[in-house]
Structure formats: structure tokens, C-alpha cells
Amino acid sequence: MRKFNGKSNLLISLLLILFTTLSGCVYSSTHIYLTWQNDPHTTITINTISPTREYPTEIRLKEADNLNSSETVIQLSPRDFSIVNPPRKITTYEITNLKPGQIYTFKFKTNKNKFTKEYKFKTIPNDGSPLRFVAGGDMGILPSAPKLLQQARKFNPLFVVIGGDIAYANGDPKNDWIWDIWFTNWCKLMVNDDGCLIPIIAGIGNHEVNDKDISSSPEERAPFYFNYFPQERRSYFVRQFNPFFALIVLDSNHIVPVSEQVEWLKTTLEANANYPYIICTYHVPLYPSHRPFDRTISLEERNLWLPLFDSYKVSACFENHDHTFKRTKILKGNQPSSEGTIYLGDGCFGVNPREIKNLDLGYLEKAESRRHFWFVEVDAEKLIAKAVDEEGHIFDEVNILPRLQPKKVTNQ
Ligand SMILES: [Fe+2]
After folding, report:
1. What CATH topology corresponds to 30-122?
2. Do domains 30-122 and 131-400 have the same CATH topology?
3. CA 237 / ligand 1 centre spacing (Å)
4. How far does the centroid of ligand 1 lie from the alpha carbon of residue 206, in Å?
5. According to the model, what pLDDT value does residue 409 have?
6. How far is CA 148 from the centre of its chain?
7. What local confidence, expressed as pLDDT, does residue 65 receive?
8. Of 131, 264, 369, 408, which one has the fewest beta carbons inside 10 Å?
9. Predicted confidence (pLDDT) per residue in 335-372, tens digit
10. Ligand 1 centroid to 322 CA: how many Å?
11. Angle at 288 between CA 167 and CA 366, to 5 degrees
12. Is residue 181 helix, strand or coil?
């Protein structure tokens, strides 16, 4: 998507304010959403973005459906996000030592001594029950984005992974209105069947980053990404979902060079080698379906990351950036192989689809110019990924077997 200029920016801003007002949303209300900075079974990070006139100062937390649960009072430290105009108050609070698979309720007390309504979240279970999540990238704020979110929530995911190009604000403080629309969509739609807010795992894409010199700090180059999505203050990290899979989020050269993540990737793959599934996600595809195969970042990723994906038998990679639907053949060493990795993409979770190219290169099993997201269900024996379009049609499905053979149990 091209960058917005001043006039189109103003026009789109006015239209979207009208749209959100008509659809019952309050443009300037507080956005309340969840991320993780650590173990998703025992922690959650509650985030808020507010106009400065009223903002949360306290969280009141307790277990849902447990009359014996006492309320925990947590004092917040609101901070000013003053690069935008008008400035916002942001709060970030990580709650730890939670029970896995438990629903908690929380409400806020504000600086005006008012209490908000109750919200809920659920920690990730680790009891061997199947885990469900949604993956996609390149979302933005066109009308297709909320349409796809509406379909995504129907699958009742435990979390959503967004592989970069989230709101399309280009790290520009003047574009904070784009994030307002994005969060309005998210907060309105992403609540699961239990009434729980659905956490976000946010990867970074080129449209999170501004034009500042690379000597500037990551927070200066991608101010919304790092301030709005607290995830260890890094653009690459790993989350383990027990007992089934590790999810490795990488930065395809937006803040951290591809080469600088190689050692970390190797150590991380090694540390997580006992999981039945390893899933990676990043923005720029190794196997593009629209852009040329030999563009610099794809080439570098294939040179530096692919040998590790191959040797650790990474189950699947969610790729983005090309604004299409694609599923590759199972690939190892750039060749079809029954023991390789499947690459699913290519980032069309709300943006306008692009033309399919590269079919002649032989690595694409299936590709379409079609908006979609991937719904994934994982247990110990299978990982099923389904491509779902904005009408809710499942138009592709793949079953991926575990990386490791089940251990033999012998009687002594
Ligand atoms: Fe992109």
C-alpha cells in the first residue's frame, strides 16, 4: 500500500471518523488490549491507550467464577505518549503468577475516580487440550479489515499473530488517527465466546517503520510498534505454547538486520527442539508470490535463515508482505521434500490483494489474489491450518504432521 499524502490523509480521516461514529464507536475512547512479554500460560500484559482527560490509574483483578477469589488492586503508572498530538496516556502492566487456562476479570479505576465495566482474559491452557490461533499480516483499516476480524473471532482463537504491516501508519506521529481506527476495530471485534479479550502477538513490518536514520533508536524508528505492543521491547522473540509448539517471531530487516538474528535463531531453535511443532513468522517472504524471488531481503533470509529452518525441521512459516494468498509445496533446500517446511502466506488480512506471480518458479502449490487469514488448530498429532476469506469460506486446508516421531513406550 502506498503511503498517504496530506490531502488523502485528511479525507480518509474524515470518512473514517464518520464511519466509526455511525457504527457506534467513540473515536476518542480508551483502547484496551492484551499482549505478552513472557509465558502466555502464567502471564498477561494489559495495555491501554487513552486521551489525556480520562485514563486508567488502577486495575482491579480477580478470578472469574470463583467466589473465594479476592480482588487484587494494581496501581498503574500512566506515561505520556507525547509524540502524537493531542498526546495520549499509555499504561502497560504485566500480571504474573497466573493459573494456566483460567479466566480472570478486571476493571479499571480512572483518574476521575470512576470504575469502568468488567473485562475478561483467559491464560493459555497447558493441559494438552488443542490450541487455536489465527495468523495473518498486512491488515490496515480498509473496510475489509474489520470484515476479516469479524470472521476470525468466530473461530474463537486464543490469540492472533499479526506478521507485520498492522495499521499502515508508517511510524509517523501524524498518523496516530490510523492507529485509533485500527484499535477501534480490534477492541470492538476481538472478544471470544467466553467474553475474553483476544491477545495480540505483533510482528514488525516495513509499514511500522519511519524514514529516520538507522542510527536512531528502535523506539524512534517504530514508535507505535514499540510503545503500543510491549513484547520484551524487541522485534524478535519466542513464545512457547505447551505442550505443542514454539512460535518464533522474526524481524525481516525492519529494525534488526536479518544477519544479526542468526545466532539467536539457532540458539532458540535448539532450545525448542523438543516441541512437536515449531512455527516461525516474519514479514518478508522467503518464497514470494507477487514480488521477485531475488529481492534483497528474501535472498538474505534464504541464505541465512533457511539452512536453520531446514536443519531444525521447522513445521511451518507464516509469511506476509505480498498481499496474496499462497501455500508452498513442502520445501527443503529450495526443493520439494517430504521432510521440509511449508510456507503459508502471503499477508492479505485486510489490504487489497495483488496479482499472483512466480507460479513458473515451481515452489507454489496454490496461490490466489484473495484476502484471508489462517486459522490454526494444533494438538500433539496434527496441526491443521485453514485459509478463511472475508465471507468466512474455508478455501484451503493443510494438515502438518509433528516434527518428532512419538516416543516408544516399552514395558520393562
Ligand atoms: Fe509490507
Report:
1. Immunoglobulin-like (2.60.40)
2. no
3. 19
4. 5
5. 44
6. 14
7. 85
8. 408
9. 999 889 999 999 999 999 999 999 999 999 999 999 99
10. 7
11. 105
12. helix
